[in-house]
Design a protein that fits this description.
The complex is a heterodimer.
Chain A lengths: L1 H10 L1 H4 L13 E2 L4 E3 H22 L4 H17 L3 H17 L9 H20 L5 E3 H4 L3 H18 L8 H20 L3
Antiparallel strand pairs in A: 2-3
Chain B lengths: L7 E3 L2 H19 L2 H6 L1 H12 L7 E4 L5 E2 L4 E7 L3 E7 L6 E6 L5 E7 L6 E4 L2 E8 L2 E3 L2 E4 L2 E4 L22 E6 L5 E6 L11 H7 L7 E9 L2 E6 L25 H19 L2 E6 L7 E4 L2 H13 L20 E6 L4 H12 L4 E5 L10 H23 L4 E3 L5 H17 L5
Parallel strand pairs in B: 3-12, 16-17, 16-19, 19-20, 20-21
Antiparallel strand pairs in B: 1-10, 2-4, 4-7, 5-6, 5-9, 8-12, 9-10, 9-11, 13-15, 14-15, 17-18
The chains are: A mainly alpha, B alpha+beta.
């Protein structure tokens, strides 16, 4: 029977060109690196972080559980297949909009947890977009932007913790300061572009 | 971008992150929700940071100056400086593509060692590395390095004794000739005869045998000599373990030695054993019509032979030679061949007819069974023809040594036994 099948495979051009199931994989190129993480772990991590972000945000909203889980699974699947920081940013913006629509204002303390989660999902999305499933990433390379990221996230969370008791009070100067900060940021980002 | 940072550009993250951060800030301010505004602040800060910190330092990617010749496989080192991350995609013929991201020290360079799994010898190429560097949010245009040619010389295994011709040549050398002459080994004590040198007179023996000095006695010694061996490399074809690749359909695996690799290894091992013993070794490449490398001794000559072995390769279709290559008189011939056609067997018979002893080293690798039924039948026929050829040669008294992976362990012992037999037999051909 096996011989008959092999003869059929050899005779039919369509089957002849199929990959040989008995073929051994090609050898690997030896590379000396430090401790590494496989690329699929980064892809899985960014999917999970973005999904968790959306799950928490939709949980604050009076949304039907089925719709919320559908959104989360779509987000996880899309980011797992096409990982990118842009997709993670969409999840962050969507989470922000869900927060804006929830009834826990004027300052929902859960945002203090969402800030590091959102930043981590964007950074992991940057990594997952650039490396393939089988790539290896050194731990030292992953830790490269960690102090800077911790400073950004830690500073933002600290500001949030300070703002939390003041939320809901009429603070006209704060709004003006926020607008000015927005203008300065816009100038830094867009006016100084190369 | 500053003018002193050529090749660097900002990656895609800052643009999108800035837009997301600004959207969240506007929504937060418009709805009076500072929590929403804060969610986008880290992204905005990252964007600002990336814009205000262009990468400093020169970016350079290079392959370390390679040693053009090596005996230890194909290895290379790439050195990366500039930036703080290096995203490298490494490719090489017959290998899976490797991809990795390595950390680059801020004020230094990172050296990454790459080693191919290839066991092939001869001209090879090092791995090709496409390197993209990152510095913060900045990316450098990809740089490609590697792919330089290396000549992988065949390695050798230690051999205790290898057969040498019974008829030795020359007036000096490490071996003992059968004729009288200048040498270190005593043959006999003989009465002085015309032609004997005076310094050869053994006065003790003369005093013992002829006290009246009627006859003078001289010490006669065996002459020193050296053996001449020709290595004949049948490089007309180069076949691997997979019969599907024998007619250049498909690629041979680089992690399995081909017949030519085995022949190079066997020839290098025998050449090294002979040269280290002080004998003379020559080389003939059957694929080329060039003049053979004449027998000589010494380490420089061994290097020349290794080069000749490494550079041998098939030229066109295997063809039979009309006339066997000329070899030195009294030389023993080692033929390294797969014996897949009649030409090699015919050469052996011709040389033996001319009085040269011949040792055939079978260099066909262990062939894997073919799954294709037609190929299996073809291989069965070829194998039976080959076995017939080898049996006929063995019946004619030609020693055959198998050098394939399964027979290599016994090859040294086989050559050793053959060397002892050759030393005993008077007419070993």
């Amino acid at each position: 029977m096996r011989t008959w099948l092999l003869t059929l495979r050899a005779e039919l051009p369509l089957l002849r060109d199929l990959p040989d199931p008995e073929a051994r994989p090609l050898p690997r190129i030896g590379v000396v690196l430090g401790r590494t993480v496989p690329g699929w772990v980064l892809r899985a991590a960014t999917s999970l972080a973005s999904g968790l972000l959306l799950l928490i945000a939709t949980g604050r909203l009076a949304m039907d559980a089925g719709v919320a889980w559908t959104l989360v699974w779509i987000c996880v699947a899309v980011i797992a297949v096409w990982p990118s920081p842009s997709m993670a940013l969409v999840a962050v913006v969507a989470s922000g909009l869900f927060l804006a629509l929830d009834g826990h204002g004027p300052f929902d303390p859960v945002v203090l947890g969402l800030i590091p989660l959102g930043y981590a999902s964007v950074r992991l999305g940057w990594w997952a977009q650039r490396v393939s499933w089988t790539a290896r990433v050194e731990w030292a390379a992953l830790a490269r932007g960690l102090p800077r990221g911790l400073a950004f996230v830690g500073g933002t969370v600290a500001v949030g913790a300070l703002v939390l008791p003041l939320a809901g009070q009429p603070l006209g100067p704060a709004v003006v300061a926020g607008g000015a900060a927005l203008a300065v940021l816009a100038w830094l980002v867009f006016a100084r572009r190369p | 971008m500053p003018p002193d940072a050529p090749g660097w550009r900002v990656g895609g993250l800052p643009e999108a992150a800035a837009v997301a951060g600004v959207v969240l800030l506007i929504v937060g301010l418009a709805l009076g929700r500072p929590d929403v505004a804060l969610l986008g602040v880290p992204m905005l800060l990252a964007t600002v940071f990336s814009r205000t910190r262009p990468p400093a330092g020169a970016h350079a990617v290079a392959e370390d100056p390679p040693d053009p010749e090596t005996e230890a496989g194909v290895a290379s080192t790439i050195r990366i400086s500039g930036g703080d991350l290096a995203h490298v995609r490494v490719s090489a013929a017959g290998h899976r593509t490797a991809e990795f991201v390595a950390r680059v020290p801020p004020d230094g360079s990172r050296a990454v060692d790459l080693r191919l799994a290839s066991v092939r010898t001869g001209p090879q190429e090092t791995a090709i590395a496409d390197v993209r560097s990152y510095a913060g949010e900045w990316e450098h245009d990809p740089v490609t390095v590697g792919g330089t040619r290396r000549l992988v010389l065949p390695s050798s295994m230690p051999l205790a004794h290898v057969p040498v011709p019974r008829n030795l040549r020359g007036l000096t050398g490490p071996r003992r000739s059968r004729r009288f002459g200048d040498g270190g080994e005593l043959r006999d004590i003989h009465p002085f005869a015309p032609g004997d040198r005076l310094r050869r007179i053994d006065w003790r023996a003369t005093a013992r045998r002829s006290p009246n000095l009627e006859t003078l006695y001289v010490r006669r010694t065996f002459a020193d000599a050296e053996a001449a061996v020709m290595l004949v490399l049948d490089s007309r074809d180069d076949v691997g373990t997979d019969p599907r690749t024998w007619r250049h359909f498909g690629e041979q695996r680089v992690d399995e030695a081909t017949s030519l690799d085995l022949a190079r290894h066997a020839a290098a091992s025998i050449a090294r054993a002979l040269v280290e013993h002080g004998d003379r070794v020559g080389l003939v490449d059957l694929a080329l019509d060039a003049r053979p490398l004449p027998p000589a001794s010494g380490r420089r000559h061994l290097r020349r032979i290794l080069h000749g072995l490494a550079l041998s390769h098939p030229v066109g279709e295997p063809s039979a030679r009309l006339r066997p290559p000329q070899v030195s008189a009294d030389a023993l011939i080692y033929l390294f061949s797969t014996v897949l056609d009649d030409a090699s067997a015919q050469l052996v018979r011709t040389w033996r007819g001319l009085g040269h002893p011949v040792v055939v080293v079978d260099t066909l690798p262990d062939v894997r069974p073919a799954s294709d039924p037609r190929l299996a039948i073809a291989w069965r026929i070829v194998r039976m023809e080959r076995e017939l050829r080898l049996d006929r040669l063995a019946r004619e008294g030609v020693p055959i040594v198998h050098w394939a992976a399964s027979g290599r362990a016994e090859a040294a012992a086989g050559l050793d036994a053959l060397a002892r037999v050759a030393a005993r037999k008077r007419d070993w051909r």
